[in-house]
């Protein structure tokens, strides 16, 4: 049986993942939180699942590489340096990094890419998201993942064509940009809205998470799929065959 080690095990997602490991009939190798020994956990695991905080990424990925075990990274709020860290690690072990492990969002990203490509540059793209009051990063990892899908569909660079929050005298909308808006409140597990606004019509593609269970189930599915895979950077679409 495949042994899964959880980083961020006492957190909201860590607890949900532990439940999903049991449901999947896999073995829980253990879990750590702040101050825990990631290398010790990695050595006891066949695969690591990291849903913690961005500042722990370098140490967690380093432990995976040192122990030679694959790692699923679900932590969001990652910056360009973190993505470089992930790319470097993927030369040594199998790494799957994603802002959303759910089946629904993985499909949504494919639909968004297709819509952006087919509708063309005259359609403005806006991405809105709502999450629970405890969430610390914005825009959500999922919103950025969906923005990246839209940018790929359009053949543009997301970082150079984003509006991340408008306030005050912003001027008219920048042509071709992808806009992001973040709402926070209550216990919302994660809602995402991708709006294609054209002249006289709109196309809206949405996803609503009803609980964290969908992310946890997807994370465990990804971990079981990743265990034993050769080094490389993988995506949820690879796991789900989408
Ligand atoms: N990809 C996806 O599908 C999803 C991703 N997420 C992302 O997962 C992450 C966690 O979310 P959530 O569970 O809600 O957050 P929580 O704040 O509930 O949990 C985070 C956990 O990480 C632990 N932690 C903090 N620092 C470290 C460290 N240095 N090493 C190891 N563990 C550490 C915390 O422990 P302590 O209390 O000791 O500080 C805590 O238990 C977020 O980035 C979130 O956006 C969430 C849902 C789905
Ligand atoms: O912090 C959360 O809760 C979530 N984080 C992920 C994100 O940033 O997109 C995924 C999900 O939406 C829940």
Q: How many E-type strands?
A: 11
Ligand set: NADPH dihydro-nicotinamide-adenine-dinucleotide phosphate, the ligand O=C(O)C1=N[C@H](C(=O)O)C[C@H](O)C1
User: Could you name the CATH topology of the largest domain?
Assistant: Rossmann fold
Q: Would you identify the CATH H-level superfamily of the largest domain?
A: NAD(P)-binding Rossmann-like Domain
Strand order of the largest sheet: 2-1-3-4-5-11
Class of the largest domain, according to the CATH hierarchy? Alpha Beta
Pfam families: DapB_C (PF05173), DapB_N (PF01113)
Pathway: Amino-acid biosynthesis; L-lysine biosynthesis via DAP pathway; (S)-tetrahydrodipicolinate from L-aspartate: step 4/4
Active site: 131, 135
Family: Belongs to the DapB family.
């Amino acid at each position: 049986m495949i042994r899964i080690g959880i980083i961020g095990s006492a957190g909201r997602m860590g607890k949900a993942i532990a439940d999903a490991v049991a449901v999947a009939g896999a073995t829980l190798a253990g879990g750590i939180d702040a101050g825990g020994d990631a290398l010790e956990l990695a050595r006891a695991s066949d695969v690591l699942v990291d849903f913690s905080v961005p500042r722990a990424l370098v140490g967690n990925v380093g432990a995976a590489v040192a122990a030679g075990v694959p790692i699923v990274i679900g932590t969001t709020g990652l910056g360009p340096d973190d993505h470089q860290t992930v790319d470097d690690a993927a030369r040594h072990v199998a790494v799957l990094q994603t802002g959303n492990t759910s089946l629904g969002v993985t499909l949504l990203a494919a639909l968004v890419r297709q819509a952006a490509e087919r509708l063309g540059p005259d359609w403005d793209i806006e991405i809105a998201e709502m999450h629970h009051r405890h969430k610390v990063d914005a825009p959500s990892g999922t919103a950025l993942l969906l923005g990246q899908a839209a940018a790929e569909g359009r053949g543009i660079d997301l970082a150079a064509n984003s509006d991340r929050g408008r306030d005050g005298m912003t001027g008219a909308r920048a042509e071709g940009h992808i806009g992001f808006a973040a709402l926070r409140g209550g216990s919302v597990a994660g809602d995402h809205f991708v709006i294609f606004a054209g002249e006289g019509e709109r196309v809206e593609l949405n996803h609503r998470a009803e609980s964290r269970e969908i992310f946890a189930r997807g994370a465990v599915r990804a971990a079981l799929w990743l265990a034993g895979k050769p080094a490389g950077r993988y995506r949820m679409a690879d796991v789900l065959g989408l």
